[in-house]
Design brief:
This protein has 325 residues and is α/β, with parallel strands linked by helices. The protein has an eight-stranded parallel sheet, covered by helices on one side. It is globular. The N and C termini lie far apart (39 Å). The model has no long low-confidence stretch (mean pLDDT 95).
């Protein structure tokens, strides 16, 4: 059975392996058939997963709609987190661009209403800002939006999906007391949340959603110089130029070190276990578009945290990069 953890001060008991639903929406993720992705989501729910992370921007609400349909058809109960996309459609948030261009009050409310309709619910379990800029922290509009949406019963809890590789950008927002959760990139290569973000989250009892545990596939060992992606797909951009060669070499070095240390599980299993080993993490949200991936990822929960010696080995493979830029 998949283990449960408490999502910070929300008190929600959620599966430590969640479902990242970016790929479910299609559009930016290709190479799968929608019926297979839906079968994967059904399988995850059957195996005890009860936390799904989606966003209004995932194929213009299609991901939200598919989740609603699946929950309705299966009768499964899962907590669903979604996100308000930046109005200017810029990911990540750019320095110097004001809140009025990204999250004006009425726009946040409007997006929340749209997500409620897509998900077929009266209250969102968790709404999140899909980008964040610490320059906005003193503005009252985003604070008022959170307070009013909660007061109106439209949203139970509110969080921030932190910009790529910028974990410290949410520290001041957490200190306002208005943020219940954060979502952050955390994996073997990017261990930076451990320095400042995770200690503050533990101090303030903030829930943590760890995203990109497999670095868009780079930490599975399956990306090679010969890997091909649809030119319109996100991964074609992420692994452009010589990046496939680079990640293949990084993964090979990591695998070699693990094998020398006597680790026999797959690289993907070790990478997932890395993310759930830190006590600040409430759940990790890999994308799972195939049943076999669901089955493997769910089994990781039963294995539990990594031994200290393996964690120490993995510390040496931290890698300062940003393929999203």
């Amino acid at each position: 059975m998949i283990n449960r953890r408490t999502l910070g001060r929300t008190g929600l008991q959620i599966s430590e392996i969640g479902y990242g639903a970016w790929g479910l929406g299609g559009n930016q993720w290709r190479g799968h058939v929608e019926v297979d992705a839906l079968a994967a989501l059904r399988c995850a729910l059957e195996l005890g997963l009860n936390f799904i992370d989606t966003a209004l921007a995932y194929n213009e609400g299609h991901s939200e709609q598919l989740i609603a349909r699946t929950l309705r058809e299966t009768g499964a109960r899962a907590y669903v987190a979604t996100k308000v996309p930046p109005k200017n459609r810029l990911w990540p948030a750019q320095p110097g661009i004001g809140l009025d261009d990204v999250f004006p009050y009425e726009y946040v409310v409007e997006c929340t209403e749209t997500s409620l309709k897509n998900l077929g619910v009266e209250t969102l379990d968790l709404q999140q800002f899909h980008v964040w800029n610490q320059e906005w922290v003193e503005r009252e509009e985003w604070r008022r939006a959170i307070e009013d949406l909660k007061k109106a019963g439209k949203v139970r809890f509110f969080g921030i999906s932190i910009n790529d590789h910028q974990p410290d950008s949410a520290l001041s927002a957490i200190r306002t007391g208005l943020i219940d959760t954060v979502q952050v990139i955390y994996n073997v290569y990017d261990q930076t949340p451990e320095a400042n973000l995770y200690p503050l989250c533990q101090e303030r009892n903030i829930g943590v959603l760890a995203r990109c545990p497999l670095d868009e596939g780079a930490l599975t060992g399956s990306i090679t110089p010969e890997s091909q992606f649809d030119p319109q797909e996100f991964r074609a951009f992420y692994f452009r130029g010589d990046r496939k060669q680079v990640v293949a070499e990084k993964a090979a070095a990591l695998k070699a070190d693990l094998e020398a240390a006597g680790v026999t599980e797959t690289l993907a299993e070790t990478a997932l276990r890395f993310t759930i080993t830190h006590p600040a993490v409430s759940t990790v949200i890999p994308g799972m578009r195939k049943v076999r991936n669901v089955q493997m990822n769910m089994a990781v929960s039963e294995k539990g945290p990594l031994p200290a010696a393996v964690m120490e080995l993995l510390r040496k493979h931290a890698w300062n990069k940003n393929f999203y830029s």
